[in-house]
Amino acid sequence: MLTGDKLETATCIAKSSKLIGRDYDIYTFKQIATRETCLQEINMFKRKNDACLIISGDTLQICLSFYEKELMDIAINCPAVVVCRCSPTQKANVVELLKKYGNHRVRVCAIGDGGNDVSMIQSAHVGIGIVGKEGKQASLAADFSINQFQYLSRLLLVHGRNSYKRSASLSQFVMHRGLIISVMQAIFSTIFYFASISLYQGFLLVGYGTIYTMFPVFSLVLDQDVRPEIALLYPELYKELSKGRSLSLKTFFLWVLISTYQAAAIMYGALIIFDDDFIHVVSITFTALILTELFMVALRIHTWHPLMVVGEILSFACYILSLIILKSQFDTEFLRSWDFIWGVTVITLISCLPLCILKFLQIKFKPPIQQKLMQYATLK
């Protein structure tokens, strides 16, 4: 906590806001003027186990001039740090030091409600301004603005968590959508001795990235894996995000593997099942590709929103309509045949059914923590 209040006032605010717990020890840095006394105070504080640090702005400035790294290392590992009698420039400097000496995955969030907090808010990775009696300077300079401090928990635990989860799902599906059609094109080229022939041309290629798959994929921003009241009741769900498991190298290579498998299943499935009718490869593979993408989006969703259902139906309806309009791209008589219907169904099942089985086994034997909490809340 960085504040311009006196030491006693800052200590009382830290305790009343529960920044400093009742069972925490408190160590107050004495006023220092020399390098020796600074080192003595740092060594004294190191002997305290899990003690909260309270230090004035003048003392902090002197300590940073002599032992910047040592002081920041022990301050970062403290349960809580209170800097009182702190100027606006010092607030911004402390935020910069936290960004410098913190872990590379740590993000610094600065929260303020007055004009003297603007420099601190702008120096942080994320700035949150509170509209209060001191005006709207902090709110206008911040990335996020709230009316009351109590809204911070919902901003972080609900909206912040959902934003991270949704961004991860959206980026993964955008990657999956582009990678699967690229692998299919590569397989198609290898079948025809690496000839530079495009598998899908014209409107199909443009429509795949827009109207055929855009609505379902972007509807993932409405998904939520837990209800807001559960996210507020169990803050550990937010802490779990710090491990970065939703968007990491592991998930990247996992989606690359999924995209490669599904592309191979569609192309080689069409080659095996429709060996005699491979002239209709565009109709067969493109239909299976659209169905696979729609099914994968549905498989990823945790909580269905009405707009998600509309997006799925609208995308499939647009594709059915294009089958009727684009007669130059599709053979209408072949599309009405039973061979086309059952063949595309089999290819889609081959590409999607193994992933459904794996997801069922994961939920059954090793469910994620949010799945456990949702089941527990349902039982209650």
Short description:
By secondary structure, the chain is mostly helical. The chain is built from 18 helices and six strands. It has two domains: 147 residues, Rossmann fold (3-Layer(aba) Sandwich), CATH 3.40.50; 226 residues, no CATH class.
What would you note in describing this structure?
This protein is mainly alpha-helical and 380 residues long. It folds into two domains: 147 residues, Rossmann fold; 226 residues, no CATH class. The chain contains 18 helices and six strands. The strands form two sheets. A three-stranded parallel sheet has the order 1-2-3. It has a three-stranded parallel sheet with strand order 4-5-6. Helix 6 links the parallel strand 4 and strand 5. Helix 3 packs across helix 4 and helix 13 runs antiparallel to helix 17. It is elongated and about 90 Å long. The mean pLDDT is 87.
The ordered string of helix (H) and strand (E) elements is: HEHEHHEHEHEHEHHHHHHHHHHH
Strand content: 5-15%
SS summary, helix count = 18
Number of domains: 2
Work out the helicity level.
55-70%
Sum up the overall morphology in one term.
elongated
Number of strands: 6
